Fold these 3 entries.
Entry 1:
Amino acid sequence: MAFRRLFPSRSLFVTSLLFFICIIVLFSLFNGVSFFFFKTKLEEEIIASNRMLLQHSAERYANHFSRLQSLLYSKYKEVDVQSFNRQIRLFGEAGTDYLTAKKISSQLRNEANDPLFYLESLILHFGGNAFAIDQEGSSSAEDMLGRAYQSSIYTYTYWQNQLLTDNTLTLLPAVRYNRSVELPQGSTLMPYVYKTLGSQYQIIAMLDMEKTLQALFGDARSRAFAITSKDGLLLYSSDAELDAGSIPAFGEGESHTLINRQYWFRTSDSSGLHYFTRVPSQAITSQLSEWNFTAAIVLALMLIVGIAASILFSKRLELPVKQLVDVFSNRRQDKQPSPIEEYAFIDRNIKELLKEREEVQAKMAKQRTLLTNFGYMSQLKNINEDIVELEQLLAMNESYTVVLYELRFRGSMLSVLNLRPENATLAIREHIRHIAQEHCPSSHTFQMEKNYILTVIKESRGVEIEAMLEKMKGMLDQCKHYCLVTIAVSARFEHPSQLGYAYEQVQMLSKQAKLLDETQLIQEPRELPDPPRLSLLQEQELITAIQGGQGVAAFMLIDSILEDMYTAGAAALHYDAFSSLVFEKVAASLGAMQLDASQSWAIKPLHYKLAACCTLSDYKEVLSRLLEAAAVLMIENRADTFDPIAARVMEIIEKQFAEELSLDYLAHTLNMSSAYLSAYIKEKTGTNFSEHLNSLRVSKAKELLTGTTLNINDISRQVGYHNVTSFNRMFKKGTGVAPSEFRKQSVLERKIG
């Protein structure tokens, strides 16, 4: 009753405000209950979660070490390894069977590259003759263990002494290895060593601890992780500040403890290794504090914002409704009203307004297509023609066909005949108009653009149109010595508003014209071949021929592609695109030679001549002149810039690229300082020494990849890279693809060719 007295009427404002407040109260109660329930459980769950995480990580590490132990034992006992050990002990390094060493290296590579082992390397160390094999190859033990895998702790002498110990399976503390060719970024590695008592060789697994940590433990940015042996020796720590002395002592059966505001968790595996993780206590307590504070703030803000929003939205909903009620209050309805008075009234009137709007929109939709397409008529109204004929065209209400004539003038013949293109276009248009009027009196002919003439034929039979087109082709063929024409015929359309679609259709058909020396008539679309392009090998051959001054060889390559295009039925637009591509490649090659403007200007006119080509012979002639001119410029530029020192450097690189060639060696050979020679080569050739050397090596590698069946490792050594990783990196930098991918592409291109 008190509620009734306070709110005597169920107005929109009262109803919406009460609804919002009820929702706010329900959500507040739910949040309060949830807060007090989860608060008591959260700390226990966080500690249990960290303890469980460490236990799972320890199990994964134990399983991983067990798998590595099995791997080391199986590799150590392989027949090839034991045979090689006996051989090297009997005959020394001079009698080493490198084929067996290569085979062992290949076997090690399969295991070392297995992503599930997280290994950086697998090394077989033969101590008697100081020889070592890993997955990348073989070398002296001092070179591999003292240089490639360089560490201040695990030196070559250390590994020699390790052979003298009585231990069979040893897990050594992880250390940070220095950067080297085998370790370009440097890594934290944990050596895992296996040997038998009295043996003269051992196998070493270099475990990448950063990858292992990420895979077996997870993100260690907010938690420190450590492993110790059963004797307390620190084997690995993810935090440089965490050492053996900072790890606290745990009581019997104790799995976690709180010391100096840090939670420590410990667990062990069956082999006696101990695993620790350290989580700052503030990381746990801060979660609780943040939860308490955030929950309180959110609850308070939710109440304040919710109540304020309820009042605001209720007022904003009530105001326009009251205004609408005032507007429509003079109209009376006998329908049963809605429980909310304002909405009942709005509902009735809005329905009437929507019904009226739908009727108006339906009428507008019927006219939308007509209004849109008549916008195309504005282009026709800009044509300087007989206004009466234009008005007849726009007012026509019968079916029609559109015929487009695309003109391509031969510039050379127009010059011989002393004809201007616009005058020739006018003459051709009048001939077209005359023939069209003769066969189809109701036709209209207009010049749409400088090379487009359009004829609109109304209500003519197909026989009449065919006769007109036949005569039109005969007339235009007489002009083919100075103008080639493509005739495109549209389908039949029913309304003048579709003229824009008809014009687009004939434009699309005209683009499918072939490169023929006659008038072409196109009435149906055809399937076009794929746009032409230069394959990777063809592009390299073209650039090599141009830079070598071999214009004829370059044109022979382009000529074969043009013939293939002609046989495949390529459209004229394909020839335009292909000739532009060739011009770009030529311009890029000349640009790389840093020619001045006066030299490169010689090929500029040929670019415009390519745009004016009309037949296959035209394209061949202009492209032949372009490639020959580019080759001459290359030869002249080389003659002008000949330098004996630079030539001598290039000669040495060409002859000795497969050797250990360095700038210091060149400087000593030429009796110059290294710094001066480096600057001199850069100044004279535009490229430094290493880029010249790597470019030649990559070029030779491409020849071997496409012309031989040698494997990647052999090719790497033959072109001067004694590390296959460096070879892969430089090859991809120079070509954009890896050597194996390049070989696949070249094989595929030969099959397609």
Entry 2:
Amino acid sequence: MGRHLPPTKRGVRAPVVVAGVVVVLFAAGTLTVVSLTKGAPPCANAVPVKVAAAPEIAPMVNEIGHAVEEADPCYAFDVDDRDPGAIEESLEVVGNSEKPDVWISDSTLRLRRANAEGAADVPSSGFSIADSPVVFAVTEPAAAGLGWPGRTPGWSDILGDSRITLGIPDPSRDPVGISALMGVRQALSTTGAKDGDTSLAYASVLRRFSANTLPAVDDLYSRLPSAGGSKEPVTAFPSSENSLLRNNVRESAANGRGSLVAVYPPQPIPSLDYPFAVLAGTGRDQAAGAEKLLRALLDPAGQAALAGAGFRTPDGRSLLTRSQDDHVSVVTQNLAQMPSDSALDSLITEWSKVNQSSRARVLIDASAAMNTVVPRSGGRTRMDLTTDAVARGLNLFKPTSELSTWIFATDLDGRRDYREVIPMTPVSDLLTDRAADTIRGLHATPDGRLGLFDSVLEAYRDARDGWEVGRLNLLIVLTGGRNDDPRDLNLDKFLTEMGKLTDPQRPVPVIAVGVGPDADLTQLNAITGVTGGRTVAATDATDVANVLYNALAALAGAGS
């Protein structure tokens, strides 16, 4: 979050500008600006202070800046309402002569990113002058379908309703999007589902988001049903509370029907904190003017003006009652710190991977060991649990991904230890062609041994030959035993042959899932190690679905 102005000694407020006060009110659906400034003697040489501010807050910064000028004419504030993303990119350019003295972005995240990308003049944090929580903006009809206004819907209600068309501002570009991903994870984790089911649900939600991912929040407002565009409208998307309020004011003024309902996250997530940052290299006089502006913005009169424009105080409080408005809440929103850079990188990686299609081969052990009945499973075998996990896991993959399914055991297809049961097929077709039923209908052999090495080697060779650029090429192996085929390669020979096939420029990582306590993890680690993949174990075979989904999430960013 942005920093807050430190208190002065003995609890006495620092000198503030009170000669100029700007009051902004929501009145009859419009913004009314009332200037109560008093004149002051002119100054011969006013110090120019360049301020770049996010467009939604820039008008108020400009008005409060004018009030400061009238109280102290020795400063002249030039407020530029530029998109924070554009400012972020421009500040990363070395030697940029157009940099401002002060940058009021919408989020501390932008300061951190600009600083990390080489903008040494940009501090990694600033003083928060206002706050706007990240909410789900939901159309009135969609909210009514969830019980509003009689009940307050939650994020899990929105995410679980297939009738709602979701959209999201690109999390890799917009702070609202990255905060929304955190809120989605929290909402799904509060449903009481197992970890694997949560991963599956998260991947499914990201899939729904990806179809309507737009660069910024404002772009999503243009896709509302009330906007009348030619593309399929979105009916719920993450937004700042301030953006939602401004939309509703516009709709009210125009007697429109496009007002939105704000649905708040179940737990605190990073909000837009509007950090006031003075850039390094700013002149002493400009820095002094910036301090006057900052104090005016944080003064009660400045905070009241910002509140009237739909902002909360830096600590998340709403200064307006809005008692007649059931579209928003005035309950204080607790603040959440922006996670570490590494945690944010993980979220973005997950998001980017969800938009990457895969080409995967799934190998399912069909040896006799898979007929073992699993305790506490209601009489289900290892094979039953494994095939069910694979069938359900189809939803983890993007519809444009491609998938084939093999089973393997000794002499399964003549002298071969493997057989392809579903050829390489787009997942969109698998989901409509009852492929899940086909997978669940697979059976283990009554007496087959485990021909692991021959089968993996042949599948890996097939994957290499069918490798496609721009896709995540994968080999997924699920097995409940150890290689015990006397005709099979030994481990050393197998690893030598695999080493010949691996190519860092055409990677095919292997995910190996050990099903039950008899899986030989040493053999599986050897297989995955040579390919840059990962071995996971479901020692209790009832957990095979959870283990598989978590492994896919870790390797492919919560879906492929």
Entry 3:
Amino acid sequence: MSRPTSHDAGVRTRRRSRPLVRLVTLCAALGAALLTPGAAGAAGSRNQDAYRDLGATTRLDWMANIADDTSLGAMSLPGTHDTLSIHGGAAVQTQEDFGDSAKTLKAQLEHGIRAIDIRVRVSGGAAFTVHHGVVYQKANFDDVLSETRAFLKKYPSETVVMRLRSECPYGKSGPTDCAHEKKPKCPDGQSDSDACSKNPQPVTSSDVRTLFGKYVSNYRGLFYSPSVTGGGSAPVPRLADVRGKLVLGSFDNVDSDAYGIQTFNKHQEDHWNAESVQRKWDYVKENVDRAVRDDKDEMYVTYSSASHSLIRLPFEYAGGYWQEQGGVRTEVQGVNYRLMKYLDGGDSGRVGVVMMDFPGWALVDNIISRNNGHIPKGSGNRAIWLVNSDKTYVNSQYRRCMVRGPEFDSSKSGGLVTQRECQSKAPSSHQWGAEQPTSFDGKGFFWIKSSNGKCLTVPYNNGTPPSAGTQLFWWDCETRWFSGSQMWNVVPTKVGSVTDSKKSFRFVNNWTGLCLSMDPATASATGGKVTQDTCPK
């Protein structure tokens, strides 16, 4: 078998180049709910959309419309692994080269990247220099902080999360290692040209922490203070608390866990030397799925990057390659393309922080789009509902309660779903809840059940999905098999404004793809229709 050929074979490095499920606990009244991507809104179809082409600078302030009360742990942040690794050849380079002195970071931030991975070495005892292993990346930590500060000053709605790592060993280095070094202090009367200057002294982790503290002081106001005090890791903050700030997610290899944000390293995927692209993709998908399912206010970090000695290089894991076996040439898709397609069309369900090699614009967009549920939808929409602790479902536009309406007949097996003015003490006919079926595989979807145990149902209509505007029923729950007319996807969203938002939900029917809604013509009437309608974006 011949050596596999990368997508980049013969291409020189450029200076500038151009059903996923989400199971969440919504609240005590609602229970758990599933998020699945829709067909609309997919970004990217080609490998180059996911790999090496960051596209246009259209994502400069994409956080501006995210609600202030959104937890950083609930967000999806596109990031770069070894953010400034642009020198050292194919075995070391992990990002497109937009220039030295952290100009590559500047370009990434302008293209929507909001999580960075900075590796530093102490050089001369007085400064952090940026390295990938032994290779100096022609940037210093001052460059990183200066570019980040300039960006956040220009776009104060944004925040940047940084993983900082002391990259090199402490003490004596090997042939392929860098070592932290500080310039020796020569005795009085001897100069730097004397023999004493040829024996640099080892740097300790304490020295690294002390030096970092000096950077924090020199860049006063830049960092999110609770993350850099060194007195203990900080609770996961809200977006309002970190707008315009650089958040230290973690400070690694410094013999201390007293920095950063709690849980930043708790749910982490970083099989950096996975034996194959397929295996790496399996790891990535598994952690992303865990992030989507977990409703706890904790950080998830997934490194989609890998390198396996000289057998498989970073750009091959990211961008894929061609291989030939038995005279047949086949393409192995990279992790970036697979992740882009996996996230295509989905606009809900946090995936956490995703640290990538050579990301493309569509992959970045598909991660950002996962934050759409945190963008308040104005004062309300008839297809968005508030769920209260008394188990009432209140329409966000009309402020009316969904009601189990009159029975069809004396059998009481079903009836109409209506709406009316909400009561100060909710009667049982106003109460609903989301519940997973136990007698069959619900495929992640849920019943919306009335207090009498009946299910919210789209009329069967002789097997043809009914149109928008159709009034809904309550009906006996089908317990023998999956019935899409009774299965709902519950998608968290928000109403209000960026500074004053309320959690709310879209309920999407599995069969019709339409959302639980209200009939505008009867919205003010007691007994008005509860219907299905086109889902809001």
